[in-house]
From TrEMBL:
Binds 1 [4Fe-4S] cluster. The gene is ispG. Its cofactor is [4Fe-4S] cluster. It comes from Lacicoccus qingdaonensis. This is 4-hydroxy-3-methylbut-2-en-1-yl diphosphate synthase (flavodoxin). It comes from the Bacteria. GO terms for biological process: isopentenyl diphosphate biosynthetic process, methylerythritol 4-phosphate pathway; terpenoid biosynthetic process. [4Fe-4S] cluster binds at C268, C271, C303, E310.
Amino acid sequence: MSEIIHRTKTRQVKVGDLTIGGEDQIVIQSMTTTKTHDVEATVAEIHRLEEAGCQIVRVACPREEDALAIPEIKKQINIPLVVDIHFDYKLALLAVEGGADKIRINPGNIGRRERVEEVVKACKAKGIPIRIGVNAGSLERHIIEKYGYPTADGMVESALHHIQILEDLDFHDIIVSMKASDVNLAIEAYTKAAKAFDYPLHLGITESGTLFAGTVKSAAGLGAIISQGIGNTLRISLSADPVEEVKVAKELLKSYGLASNAATLIACPTCGRIEIDLISIANEVEEYIAKIQAPIKVAVLGCAVNGPGEAREADIGIAGGRDEGLLFMHGETVRKVPEETMVDELKKEIDILAEAHYEK
Ligand code: SF4
């Protein structure tokens, strides 16, 4: 497969105070599960998402009461808010007026041209972008008739159709998603989209499933796309608490060195040489580093025989030993630590490294 570096070659689109596209980073999004008009529940969920590392949040807007709740939600949250609208241009206008930082609507589904013009005019006036959401499961009838069934070419054609409508109105603050629940179809669609236009791409495998199955499926599909240099923002779609979506997204981005504000855990797979209760220690350390917003690599290893050498890339780590462990940095032992205080010593060192990073 030839290498495509689309990520840095896309246009830059502002969403609130964030920039999507044109740089080698992928912004994490999630979507609330509450009724949007229930402001208290929606804001509480958004606060939990913010704390987990979510950078942009989307809310559904099926009714007028949801659109009318946008101003109050906006007042109480700290990350950009995307409002998801299906067909109703009036809801789009209300959302834009209410302070949405981006709307998700397909211009081809709005109806008469004057309505599209009205929405585009409102977005331009407020300087907010539109995400075109192409979904393999809901392609336009003429595209399904042409291709027979949902194909990557059909999805790209649909995206270009919606893009053209916006470009004809001289609107270019566009982000595009090409979601499919079939992993191979999603990979092909995003790969073709990256060659077809330079608008930022919002990645996602839709209806991917429950926490476990959906995580594996999303990682398989999105990993193949991200590894080609494609994607500027992403949402992991899980049938689970949306906080889990953010945790999975962060972990996926860490795997590609694309999370600049998260610590990574390296834990040995364990074997017969193990000297400590590695599984519970690894879980404890993983939970501890979830709050660290610095790109620190932390290792937890089961024994001191091969331990430090096996985790040379770690900034800091511990290796288990009989009665005492080793604290090491970049593969070199720093000091011996008693087994019972080993994890606390590691946490202290992690905090020192994090502080040094924050001060930079
Ligand atoms: Fe086995 Fe030690 Fe390597 Fe862990 S670090 S896999 S316990 S040899």
